[in-house]
Amino acid sequence: MPKTENPLLLSLYGHYVEDVLSNTSSIEEANQALRDLGKSLGQQIYLNTEIVEKTKENITTREDVAKLIEVIYKVLYDKKPTEVDMKTARGSVRVTDNDCVWCQEVNLEGMRGFGYCEVFSGILESILEFKGVEATVFQEMSRATGADICVWNVRLV
Amino acid sequence: MLFESSPPQSFSCDFGKSPYTGRNSQDSVHEVRYMSKDLERALSKLRFDDQVLGYSLMTRVGRPFVSFAFPDDLFPRVKDSIQLYKTDLRLMTIDTEKGLVVLSPVDNNWILTVLYVPELQLGLAIAKTKNVLRLLEGIELPPPPVDFEESSEENLQVLESIAIQAASVEPKEPAAAPTAATPSASPAETAPPATESLKPEDFSVTPSTVPERGSEYSTALSLDSELNSEMKKTYRNFGFDVLMLVDGNNSVEQIADSMFQPTDRVIELLKWGACRGVVSIPRAEAKTAQSSAKAGGALGRYVKVPKFEGDLGKVDGDDLVVIRMCDGKKTTEEIAQAVHMPVPKVVQIVAKYRKRGLRMIGKTV
Question: Considering the entire predicted model, what is its pTM?
């Protein structure tokens, strides 16, 4: 048996992903459905966790965004993201996790472009919104579909 | 005249067509013989049941006609209960010191009363009674004679001879013979059902739906109607049982529960009935409009709402307008709408008071 962290979360999310895949007709549509789930979770996470107290009231710089992402990581997963890259791409912050919680032991073949962990994009996007930061977030790659790491792109508007 | 009321329903149609031919009345005498055989068979099922202490086939006014081991001192009580409900009597149970009495109407003239051992479960007693009723359902009993010796064993033969006589006598008004309980049967039979083109999927039924009787309700229950035979063919006696429980008060769930049947089976039958005007249930379009307004399933929508229980005096002036709305009844979306602010802004303000008396509580709307 593979050793997973948080098996309850995994099986619930896995169940939801299966549902989404059976009810959508394209990869992009499925990605959006998972992001929507994240967005609807965002409000509850924001109102029920310590994210508010642990972050600055006004987020203005990329460094602030990076810090916020680290706080979210701490609250949600009790760990740090592998990397928060603010430099490579202009107007974007990229979050890298080589041990993502959502897709542990998931191996999907022939699903190129499917963001198994898109739920986190939605969560991130809505929390940023509550902090007054307009951004669109999407998953660039996922270990679930064969990549070595999970990467999210936070595009600041 | 031997009969209490009009000629028995069972002979109204068939003999109306050719009442003078000898062959026909010969056949009917055979039918009557079957009738009494079937009746005896149904009753013997009770007689040989260890959990049955006694039974009695009673008239609608509560006079015992054919009885077996039914304690005499219980009759007055049973009679009182019958009188109390009169035509409304459906299935009824009476707890007595001798045991559990289950009363159930067989048709418009007869009531079957069974005394079960006291330790028998109510549900089982009802189920046993219903089993016997199923056997009796196919049998068309003539009405009781005006005068008879109560609880006599010979009464079965009396009943048989009444039926034989009835069969050989020409019914006076063959077409207009329905009994009291189905007064609208004849007019309804001639009128074509207005809802003929409807399909089961046009209706929307949930367990909480309360079906009502439709214009064809009594037609479906009268034994000689086409609708009744169609129902019997598809649903056997199940249809009859469900319809008996449709009274505008019982919900689908209650009907299914009291019959020990799955809800979806009841729903299927009700949809079938609704297509033919037998019952009336909500149309699917109406339901869609209703549910989109509610935006939720049958259970309602589960939401989390902010509730502020702290000191309003410590709330910043700018935030007061939002925090004051956090009464545990409105969602953040509703608050945003009321104070004309974007939702993220409201969430932002609400979140600030998380440690100062604001809680998120769950509720269904």
Answer: 0.45
